[in-house]
Structure formats: C-alpha cells, structure tokens
Amino acid sequence: MQLRECEYILAIAEEGNMGKAAQRLYTSQPTLSKMLGKLEEKIGMPLFERQPTGMVPTAAGAVYIDGARKMLELNAQWEKDIDTVTGKLPVLDVGFPMIRLDILACRVVPALAARYPGLQSVYICTSQSRIATDLLNNKCAIGVGIITEQYASLLNYETVGEEEYVLAVPKGHPLERKAHPLPGSRFPHLAVSHLKNTPFVLSRPGAYSTRVAQRFFEDHGITPPIALTMQNTGNIMKAVAYGTGVALLPSQPLDAIGMKDKLTYLHVDTREEPMQIGVLYRRGHVLNRIELALAEELHEAYRMK
User: Domain containing 59 — which CATH number?
Assistant: First the structure.
C-alpha cells in the first residue's frame, strides 16, 4: 500500500466522483482511472461500484479506505514522533494571503519564535483564491485564510477566529463620536447618513473589499469621494490612520496588528456575512506541534480587541 495510492483512493471515496477527485488531486481523470484500475487488478476485486449517484465503495473498498486513512495518519504521527525523539523542530511551511501579513508578522511569528528558539519557517504569500490549489499541490503544508464553503468541502481546518466587514476610521475621528452602542454588535453603530461626503480609501478595482464597498454605496444610495486607491490592506489601514479617509475592511484584531491606538472599528449596515478564519490543511495531513502552536497563537490573537 503506497501513500500516494492511499491519498488517491481517499479522494475518490470522499468526492464520490472521478472527475471531482482528479480535480482535487490536480491530476487528470484518465491518470486517476488508470491507477484505480491497476490497483483493483492487483487486489483482485473492485474497490468501487459505479452507480448513477457516484462512486460507492464495495466491501473490499471500505476495508481499503479504512486502512488507507490509518496509513496516512500513522505516517504523519511517525514523522512527529521522530521529530520529538530527535529534538528536531519541524519546518513551519505556511501559505497566506497578503491581508494576513500583519497579524502573522506582528503577533504570531514573534510568539512562535519565543516558544521555539531556532524554529525555521517558510511563509509563502499567495491569494485567498489559491490557498486550496497551493495546499493540494504541496506548495505549502498549511494555509491561513477564510474558510469558504468550497474549502470546507476540500480541506480540513481549525477555526481560529471570525471577521466581519466594518468601517475603519482614525482614532478620535468625528465619526467615532457620532457612533453609539448596538445590542448584539461588537462595535459601535454608525448611521450611514454620516458617510455621504466622507472620503473613502479603496482597494484595487475588482478586489473583494472594493466590491463590498461598491455594493454598500449602491445599497444606501451614497456616492462618497474616493480619496485613494491602494492594493495592500495593511497600507490601506495606514492611510486611514494618517487621516486620508475611511475604509470598509475585515475586522482583524487591532491589538494583534499593532493598530489599536491608531484605528477604531464601527459597525455599518452591510450585506456581508461574518467570515470564519482558520488554519487549512490537506485531508490526511496531521498537524504537528508547531502547526498546532501556530493555530493556538492565531486563536489568541483573535481573542484580542
């Protein structure tokens, strides 16, 4: 039983469809079908029944799938045990979108360095839309990002916090004084009427946060002036802190990104649902102690205000 075969069979079983399994594994369907055919020939009986509803494991397939899952988990645990006995720290290999840079750089990386002196880390900047692709192609071991419905169907994950779209304003801004507490909200509520002539800072055209802002303007019938357009969320926050304008942004914990004394978050009426943030990883991958520590530090960061 080869580990790669285990990964392939588990993908077929979990997806129930050869095409979807091949897409998840980033291989071709003929290649996957050929591998399955050779494996079934070697075993001497089929592992799946081809039914209209999808690929259904046979009795032999159920036994193989159970063993494959145990093999992958055992291999991951074996690697962890070897590292523990030898005292070797696993290399931390993380993919993340640029919007997560500040929380990693300001809070998580220093905390991990203090916990594990000599830790070697590789941080790969990617986009939210490419996290699953990079994980399934083994470009990184774990990812940090939004747990979308698609990602939840493809990957395992550990939830570390929650974000919602809020209005970021400079500390002490007049809008901060016009806001008032709102039951059930973490942030003071601001009436949209106060934003008609307030300059905004937007992300690049086509960016998700820009689309959120444009929907917000359309929903409330306002056309505020656009003071500046920037690409990086961290730079947008700095521009807001300097008084260039206000911005609609995800509510990353201000204390964890070093902006608690510079920005204030206000609640405004948007259509956006809260976003679950998590550590994402391939199915069959078992988080090692360093990866678990990263998840813990992120969870602590999101508990900050």
Answer: 1.10.10.10
Cα-only R_g, the chain:
23
Beta bridge partners of 126: 97
Tens digit of pLDDT for each residue in 274-290? 999 999 999 888 888 89
Q: What is the pTM of this model?
A: 0.70
**Residue 65 to residues 77, 221, 281, 285, Cα–Cα distance (Å):** 18, 55, 20, 15
**Domain extent for 136:** 89-161+275-303
Average pLDDT rounded to a whole number, residues 118-122: 89
The DSSP code sequence of 81-120 is HHHHHHTPPPPEEEEEEGGGHHHIIIIIHHHHHHHSTT--
- The domain tally of the chain equals 3
Are residues 224 and 179 part of one domain? yes
Q: How many alpha carbons fall within 13 Å on the CB side of residue 148?
A: 10
Q: Are 84 and 56 in contact (CB under 8 A)?
A: no
What mean pLDDT comes out for the span 163-178? 96
> In sequence order, which residues have a C-beta less than 8 Å from that of residue 221 and are 6 or more positions away?
none
